[in-house]
Amino acid sequence: MRITVVGTGYVGLVTGVCLADSGNHVVCVDVDDAKIARLQRGESTIFEPGLQDLLSYNIRVGRLCFTTDLESAVRDAQVVFVAVGTPPRADGDADLTHVDQTALAVARAARHELILVIKSTVPVGTAERLAPLVRQQAAHPVHVVSNPEFLKEGSAVADFQRPGRVVIGAFDDRAAAVIKELYEPFVRNNNPILIVPPPAAEMIKYVANSYLAMRITFANQIAELCGACGVDFDDVRRGIGADNRIGIDFLYPGIGYGGSCFPKDVPALCHVGRRKNVQLTILEAVHKANERQPTLLLDAARSRFGDSLHGRTFAVWGVAFKPRTDDVREAPARRIIDELRTRGAAIRVHDPKALANLREAYGDQLVYCEEPYEALAGADALFVCTEWTDYRSPDFDRIRAALRQPVIFDGRNVYSMAQMRRHGFEYYSIGRPPLRGSTPA
Ligand SMILES: NC(=O)c1ccc[n+]([C@@H]2O[C@H](COP(=O)([O-])OP(=O)(O)OC[C@H]3O[C@@H](n4cnc5c(N)ncnc54)[C@H](O)[C@@H]3O)[C@@H](O)[C@H]2O)c1
Questions:
Q1: What is the Å distance from ligand 1's center to 308 Cα?
Q2: CA 306 to chain centre
Q3: Residue of the nearest CA to atom 11 in ligand 1?
């Protein structure tokens, strides 16, 4: 099929590359000239495992290209995906400016019948609202379909290539059948393709993200309670995770969820609730609790080092909102960095993939280290904020030697209590009692 993808961020680029890889001809469009120039040179603009190889290959075989010219990109397309951003407004509602602009521009550019697929995460009712507007602008039939994306950053290519399910929200069977055909190569394992009305498809996406955010927050709060009761949450997690009505995933306590989805999608669903006069008290509480979560580690740091951190230096390992991505949007590590800096501390930071994105946000206000141990030099303590595998089995003697004092604040419970006790660290983690440090065994 001839496909156009508008918006080449985390979702659009992965979608375009994977659809090209299954044999389609794909044109990816973005308004960001610099991004498109890099992609035209065959350079991936994001870090995602497996993406660079597929990008290079599909450009080479002539199935994938990039442009800033929406009109020419839409001219021959049978299907146009909209994968532009839907950032939060101040009141929590999703800002649909980019989606609306794109949908109308595609309608105006259409030279024949086409299917317009909304892949961006949009509130319930968006496809219904856009369908007549698009029809008014287009000289040819434009069928609006909702197709929310469930890929996870860090395994986006694998998730796109083997989705657990595909959800297609369509007003008419013909458009649904075309999109279903497009996805069939990816569900050879018989994972379901669900065809539902567009508002249901839009709702499924928000409910999925909100439910996962709720599980993380549940784990965070129960872990705190476990800590207060002298119980190791990890034992509890294994105990409840073995119950197949509950399951083990998304029950890891930490400094809170981040990224470009959960922190905006939970408030957006709450906003829909308020508009419809339905009380989503659980989700309102989830959002509030997540905002508080990084303060647990910061409070521990305040008790240890006092209110003023002038003259102190802290090392931060991991700033991406989760491992295997370079995305630092809404990353809890940033809350930690911001608060430590506000109280006067200097920050030395390492991340295997996200330093370039962090530098865009902080410029020369931080010291960026290409190597984890370099970040420790002369620091008063180490904060571990992302559970990259790189940090799982470090050289603890080297950490002790580099730090001014052997203090670790572990925001992801990467290390075991036994390990920390053995190495004599003063150790603060989530939902576990602090260790006061000792001479290493
Ligand atoms: N990131 C994820 O893990 C994920 C997963 C599922 C769904 N989503 C949803 O997918 C959507 C996109 O998310 P993302 O993380 O890929 O965003 P992103 O910010 O990484 O990418 C959006 C891209 O759209 C471009 N853009 C904006 N306006 C444009 C326009 N008018 N024309 C062409 N390009 C335009 C931007 O320049 C940017 O490159 C959001 O609604 C998000 O909620 C994201």
A1: 39
A2: 33
A3: 120
Ligand 1 nearest-atom number relative to CA 99:
31
Which amino acid residue places its CA nearest to atom 1 of ligand 1? 10
Is the alpha carbon torsion for 119, 121, 125, 131 positive or negative? Answer: negative
Q: What is the pLDDT of residue 438?
A: 77
| Residues in contact with 270: Cβ distance below 8 Å, sequence separation at least 6, in sequence order | 92, 280, 283, 284, 287
The whole model's pTM is what? Answer: 0.96
For the chain, list the domains and their CATH numbers: 2-196 (3.40.50.720), 206-292 (1.10.1040.10), 294-436 (3.40.50.720)
How much distance in Å is there from the Cα of 281 to the middle of ligand 1? 29
Locate 52 and state its tokens.
């660079």
Side chain identity, residue 332 = P
Residues in the chain: 441
Catalytic residues: 261
For ligand 1, mutation pick of 30, 33, 155 (most atoms within 8 Å of CB): 30
**Token pair for 177:** 């059948």
Q: What is the pLDDT of residues 300-338, one digit of tens each?
A: 999 999 999 999 999 999 999 999 999 999 999 999 999
Cα 82 to averaged position of ligand 1 atoms, centre (Å) = 9
Cα–Cα distances in angstroms (integers) from residue 37 to residues 30, 44, 288, in the given order: 10, 11, 40
Residue nearest to atom 4 of ligand 1 (CA): 11
